[in-house]
Design a protein that fits this description.
Strand content: 5-15%
Structural class: mainly alpha
Number of domains: 2
Number of strands: 3
Oligomer: single chain
Radius of gyration: 25 Å
CATH class of the largest domain: Mainly Alpha
Helix content: 55-70%
Largest sheet: 3 strands, mixed
CATH superfamily of the largest domain: Cation efflux protein transmembrane domain
CATH topology of the largest domain: Alpha-lytic protease prodomain-like
Length: about 280
């Protein structure tokens, strides 16, 4: 099991613990907010499993059927998670509105507060851990898990406010908290969806990549200029196509060697998977 896969498994394990704890306490206390937060944790389990599988697929080497690798697996998984998250957010909103408009009893006590405080602590750890690992390893799916965990801290805080309000005689605050949680979940799914659609659609990378590519190319001995430069995402990796000017009097082998040196430099850059070099004689 590779490091990225082990990190993904940590997310599955922790989210499963949180889901089980919250669903038990939520059913016992009849707290709409705690049950909604438990459903939020269930979406995290679903996302973590998908991301674990996607990372495993993305780690596969290029083969005959996939000559450019399997990097699209991660954004595909991210997009599926976004759709599932949107559906669940709608269901939570519908349930919380129904509860808000009807009278119902609750049995909210200290256990609901305790499980939410435990969730906030665990999710704070997960946010810092996954964001750092995802950033360091250049894995957007792992980083997305960290961002989602950071949002979950806010979601559980809202649930905690609703639960405390219900304990002090304002039971509708619990239902209002559940409705707010559904909006957070929907927004989280929307952000994940948009980011991964960009990866799948071959979005242009940030401008600073182009500046760095130009700099490394022009520093290569024998390159007289750049007349065309394009780049786009293939999954979460970048493919570069560049046309370099080379003295027309150089031999074919010498021009080829210059092109290979440019390719080597560019492909050593972070996030860049492949560089395609075209030689233009001048």
């Amino acid at each position: 099991m590779q490091k990225s896969e082990r990190i993904s498994f940590v997310g599955i394990f922790l989210n499963t613990i949180l889901f089980v704890a919250k669903i038990i306490v939520g059913i016992f206390s009849q707290s709409t907010a705690v049950i909604s937060d438990a459903i939020n944790s269930f979406t995290d389990i679903f996302a973590s499993v998908f991301i674990f599988v996607a990372v495993k697929v993305a780690n596969k080497k290029a083969d005959e059927d996939h000559p450019f690798g399997h990097d699209r697996a991660e954004p595909i998984a991210g997009f599926i998670v976004a759709i599932f998250t949107g559906i669940l957010s709608f269901e939570i909103a519908r349930t919380s509105i129904t509860e808000l408009l009807t009278e119902h009893s609750t049995n909210i006590g200290a256990s609901a507060v305790a499980v939410l405080l435990f969730t906030i602590a665990v999710k704070s750890f997960m946010a810092a851990y996954f964001i750092k690992k995802g950033t360091d390893m250049k894995r957007p799916a792992i980083k997305a898990t960290g961002i989602d965990s950071r949002n979950d801290v806010l979601v559980s805080t809202v649930a905690l406010i609703g639960v405390i309000g219900a304990m002090f005689g304002y039971p509708k605050l619990d239902d209002i908290a559940a409705l707010i949680i559904s909006l957070f979940i929907f927004y989280s799914g929307y952000k994940i969806g948009i980011e991964n659609i960009d990866y799948l659609m071959g979005k242009r990378p940030p401008e600073d990549y182009f500046a760095k590519i130009r700099k490394k190319t022009l520093e290569t001995k024998g390159v007289k200029g750049i007349n065309e430069l394009n780049a786009h995402y293939v999954g979460n990796k970048i493919h570069v196509e560049i046309h370099i000017d080379v003295d027309e009097n150089k031999t074919t082998k010498k021009s080829h060697d210059i092109g290979k040196e440019v390719q080597r430099k560019i492909e050593k850059m972070p996030d860049i998977c492949r560089a395609f070099i075209h030689i233009d004689p001048v």
